[in-house]
Amino acid sequence: MAILEENLNKTQVPEQKAVFESGNEMAATAAAQINYHLMGYFPITPSTEVAQYLDQMKTRGEHDIQLVAADGEHGSAGICYGAALTGARVINATSSQGFLYMLEQLPTQSGTRFPMVLNLVARAVSGPLDIRGDHSDLYYALNTGWVILMASTAQAVYDLNIMALKISEHSEVRLPVIVCYDGFFTSHQKRKVMYFADRKVVQDFVGPVPTGYHNVIDKNHPVTIGAHMLGDDLINNNFQQSEALYKAGEVFKQVNREYALISGRSYSALDLYLMEDAEVALFLMNSAGESAKDTVDRLRAQGVKAGLIRPNIIRPFPAEELRQALKNVKALLVGERADSYGAHGGNMTHEIRSALQVDKDNKTIVMNRIFGVGGKDFFPDEAEEFFKLVIDAAEKGYAEKPFDYFGHVPGESQGRLQPVIEPMTGEVYKTGLIKVMQDEATGKLKVKMPPLRALTAKPKRFAPGHGACPGCGIISALELFFKGIEGDVVTLFQTGCGYVTTTGYPYTSHKQSFVHNLFQNGAATVAGMVDAFLEMKRRGEVKVSDDFTFVMVTGDGGMDIGMGPAIGTALRNHKMIMVEYDNEGYMNTGSQLSYSTPLGHQTSTSGVGKTQKGKSGHHKDTAQILAATNIPYVFTGTEAFPQDLIQKAAKAQWYAQNEGLAYGKILISCPLNWKVEDRVGTKLMKTAVDSCFFPLYEIESGITNITYNPEAKNSRVSVSEWLKAMGKTKHLIKEEEMLKLFEQEVERRWTRLKARHEHEVL
Questions:
Q1: What angle do helix axes 154-169 and 23-34 make, rounded to 10 degrees?
Q2: Which one-letter DSSP state was computed for residue 616?
Q3: Maximum alpha-carbon separation in the chain
């Protein structure tokens, strides 16, 4: 129920404090003050920080939100929906491909009318990959049935997050709400922000969790949610949802009035800047609208009646407000950070034209420019170029070019980059130094290889100049692995540090064909490549004397979000290799916890403080999971044991070319996020193996073989020797109970592995 203004006027304006913070920090601050019940999350740049800040706050005891690390954004959306079904208050944050990955869950939440708040930190949608901010992900949200608020500043992120929950839970709305703000522009840039000193002010404003609505934990009123509907019922459901979404526009105004009384800040449906008598205007969303205000001021000083429109809400679309704002405007340019390909204009342009079509007296010329995609900066002088276009259209009475891109440039043939390295083929990589033979009696493979020094003659697969951090184990471990691979390869990297440090248009560190696909879908993509290649070869359509070896490289948590496609690919047994470099976290997005992060290890989303001591659960044993799919070959390796790793690579290639899928897990160090010196990676890997935390073994045709036994070598060390060597785990030495659990789990897995090694049937 709305709070009466006369009652609010009698109350004292609450104290607010000034801070210098970013949009992501303020989204987390608002969430912590509201004290949501749950956040299901998955890291993706640039929204990742929201969960990180909330984790930091939780270690300090500043909120009680349950932070649930999902296996991917699709899973995070399911976690959030499930929590909402109980009547809990739920929040999430995502960006770009992550938003698209959860997209199919979103209409279910709005269609069944369960509130929540989602911060969409807008970022370019692949492909190709660009991690900076535009609105191509936002436009996918327009038909989800969610209310969409637009936050142009860090202050607006804080304020609209508070307003969003109240709108979402309103009795006449009961819909989830998106708060959208620009990635890196608003999410990371620090600005002066005011926030309520006492979180009770925020909690009193949003009020207690509304009661009287269906949920799954009311045992006295059992409900069925999401039952199949036929058209006669679905149209009624859709009509009610539509009415609620339009009602949200009125509720937004009501909540804004209430919030203005306690904060002194107001957010109308449209932020109209000098529009009272404007004859030419721009329509810009979020941060670009803020950048253009200075341009409007300059033009006004020159006698040009310029104005600016920036929306604070786009779902429901503020059509009537736009009609009023544009009554006397001769020409409007709609600048959009995303295109609606093939539609002769972006989504907002078409919605504005549709809104004006209803007003028969409106003669505004509406033109569109697509700008700033992929986070391309937008400056006041570029806003001035926009105004030149609308001034010209206003004077002529028509737009010479109603739709175009702004900021694109034609390529010049003389500037074309020339290859620095001649293409390398299997001839240079097929050295004959490594020979793999199958034992006819046992069926097992034997690898004959020369001393390591001889293999240095084999060319590297990566060119110099990659951008990996000093001491990063990815490149060195993969180079060592590829020493065991003969001939041509086609390599796919899922998103991760290995990818982002080796390619960046127009440059690449890869000497042979390379593909990047999404974080989660590398295995399926390589499976398609393999089978298509083999089929074209069978038909005689490609003339290749020797088969390619197709390799998928994953890491940085890629076998969390990518586990489903990986399992499917393994069960189909495609002729390929999966290699996982395991650095025990999502390092490419800022060292968040992964399911491969071990118990108690510190990451940016498993902080160490008075209320928590690092990650709460044990690490995932991916090698054993893949072994359960009965693929021909599984191995573990590390560069600390180079001969072992190269031999296993050679075996993996043989199996990939002759029998089916091979999977390998390579433990690598990440000095930056493990908090160790750059030079100690190899020593750390050896200690991990000698402590039996990371055993070296292979599973060949279902039979387990430990390839290095530290007990037999009399070199086993305690797990604490490994843990105390890293800054991320030093605290565990003092946490006796957690250390004991860690040691017990390492011993349990090692004992089971030895049993499998000793008994072939296990």
A1: 40
A2: -
A3: 93
